[in-house]
Amino acid sequence: MTRVAVVTGVARGIGAATAALLTEHGWEVVGIDREKPSAPGDWHVADLTDPSSLLTVLDGLDRIDGLVNNAALQHATPLLETTVEQWDAVQAVNVRAPFVAIRACAERLAAVGGAVVNVASVHALATSANVSPYAASKGALLALTRAAAVELGGLGVRVNAVAPGAVDTPALREGFARQVTGDAERVLAERTPLGRFAEPREIAEAVAFLLDGTKSGFMTGETLTVDGGVMARLSSE
Ligand SMILES: NC(=O)c1ccc[n+]([C@@H]2O[C@H](COP(=O)([O-])OP(=O)(O)OC[C@H]3O[C@@H](n4cnc5c(N)ncnc54)[C@H](O)[C@@H]3O)[C@@H](O)[C@H]2O)c1
Hints:
Layout: E1 4-8, H1 13-24, E2 28-33, E3 42-45, H2 51-59, E4 66-69, H3 84-112, E5 115-119, H4 132-152, E6 158-164, H5 170-178, H6 184-191, H7 200-211, H8 213-216, E7 223-226
Parallel strand pairs: 1-2, 1-4, 2-3, 4-5, 5-6, 6-7
Helix pairs in contact: 1-7, 2-3, 3-4
Bound molecules: nicotinamide-adenine-dinucleotide.
């Protein structure tokens, strides 16, 4: 029986790379995004800020072996200038949608011994200025990962997270374009012990590993940091 994976945020970046890699591994991928991806596939347009829009897609699926909560929203705003609306929008996509998706998929995941992978960020562990809603949402996503792992373990459903460092995606490039000084790209690469950004496929490999019960079958509630060594380095160095 072909395994079915639901992946959110598939139109570009890490989500697109994950959909492509899982397809290569023989998974049937059902993709969700607010934009239609250009690559061919089983894509569904839905806005994750609207739970009913997400549930309409999920309710139409018979079998679900894997759920990848990848889509995210980020605002680059100082904490004191962040509006409640901006805060809520980020939490809705980055934490509430994964919760809604996990709750909706749990029974079907349990039926086949499936798994969830939440794509968090190193900003869940340590962060920088002007990303407070994003950092808080990713911290909450790791806590949700652990909470769901504890509650769904008895059903045979594993729940893990990947915490990427800088990954060369449109979102990262858009962030650089907003920088005033223009040297953020160089500084970020220099502060990364491996001296470069990840390719989206390198994060997809970690997601695929955690999704596959034949490879990571005794892992749950875990966060796999894939960051080129960023979190290993003392900031005072
Ligand atoms: N790129 C990085 O450096 C980096 C670093 C750490 C973590 N991450 C995480 O990896 C994941 C993917 O990041 P990326 O860089 O590929 O992002 P991206 O912005 O390039 O792609 C995100 C996708 O999510 C979709 N999306 C956003 N809001 C949506 C909504 N409301 N409804 C439906 N779809 C929506 C977008 O349309 C887009 O296709 C995110 O969770 C991000 O936080 C990225």
